[in-house]
Design brief:
The protein has one domain: HIT family, subunit A (2-Layer Sandwich). Helices cover 24% and strands 20% of the residues. The protein contains three helices and five strands; from the N terminus they run H-E-E-E-H-H-E-E. A hairpin with a 7-residue loop joins strand 2 and strand 3. The radius of gyration is 14 Å and the shape is globular. The model has no long low-confidence stretch (mean pLDDT 93). Bound molecules: adenosine monophosphate (AMP). The site of adenosine monophosphate has 12 residues, from loops. Adenosine monophosphate (AMP) binds next to loops.
Amino acid sequence: MTAETAADVPTDPSCLFCKIVAGEIPAEVVHTTERTVAFRDIAPKAPLHVLVVPREHQPDAAAIAESNPLATAEMVTAARAVAIAEGHDDYRLVFNTGAGAGQTVFHAHLHLLAGGDLPFAAG
Ligand code: AMP
């Protein structure tokens, strides 16, 4: 087993998304990879709204990018796989970072949004 395998990565037993990754809290999981888990957002803001999270616990996108670049890249490619599987060639990816920017869960997560009018438009 290498340091990149899921069993070795840091987790936080008090973290909501770590509990979803571990299967301790139910979620509608739509895609998994060695380093990521994707599940439907409980309060969808678009017809397709999925969260892609690293199995490793890091508080935000920059932290997981520093700690585990492979997992971070896999989050993006996993999001693409989910979008395509659900019939969307066009989609939006969002990392809210910090409470002031709307982050409410401090385990890095990539919002995959597609279909209809998408929130978080930059302009
Ligand atoms: P953020 O506001 O960027 O931190 O995003 C956190 C997201 O997690 C929100 O869109 C919530 O709706 C979503 N969320 C919170 N709890 C759950 C849960 N138990 N299962 C799925 N999504 C959740």
